[in-house]
Amino acid sequence: MTSDPDRHPQDPRQEGTDPACDSNPVVLLVEDDGLLLMEASDTLAEAGFTVLEAPHADEALQVLESRSDVGILMTDVDMPLGSMNGFALARLVSRRWPRIPVLVVSGMGSPGPHDMPPGARFIPKPYAPSALVRTLHDTVRRAA
């Protein structure tokens, strides 16, 4: 019997399943501020998430229509570009893709009674990176 020197039996990627993919789904991050987008994206990537970026709601919808692997939406509220703000995007995603949990972030205050779709989570900006990661994990667990 010969062994493949490149195959490591303890490496889950060799078996076709990566535990990190199961616990950390693909995050669609929607943020119009380039610096905040980069910081949040880096934080989530370092925590093991795969991150897709969109600078406004219209581009986020294009991503959702073209990919089936998005596991959670994280959106800012105030986005001057595009046809809708983050609350409208959150409600639309909740209706069209009900399996995708939603996390809304904003530095502009708390959401009103009808701003958020049922089951969506909210965290105010600024947020600590650890709080963001913890909230995303919790949101994914609650949606499962």
Strand order of the largest sheet: 2-1-3-4-5
How many individual helices?
A: 5
Summed up, the domain count is 1
Question: Cα distance, first to last residue?
Answer: 43 Å
Class based on secondary structure composition and strand pairing: alpha/beta
Number of strands: 5
Portion in strands? 15-25%
Low-confidence stretches: 1-22
Major sheet summary line: 5 strands, parallel
Report the helical percentage: 25-40%
* pLDDT averaged residue by residue: 86
* Silhouette: globular
| Annotated CATH architecture | 3-Layer(aba) Sandwich
CATH class: Alpha Beta
* Rg, nearest Å: 17 Å
- At the fourth level of CATH, the homologous superfamily is Response regulator
Give an account of the 3D structure:
With 144 residues, this protein is an alpha/beta fold. Helix content is 38%, strand content 18%. The chain is built from five helices and five strands; from the N terminus they run H-E-H-E-H-E-H-E-E-H. The N terminus is likely disordered.
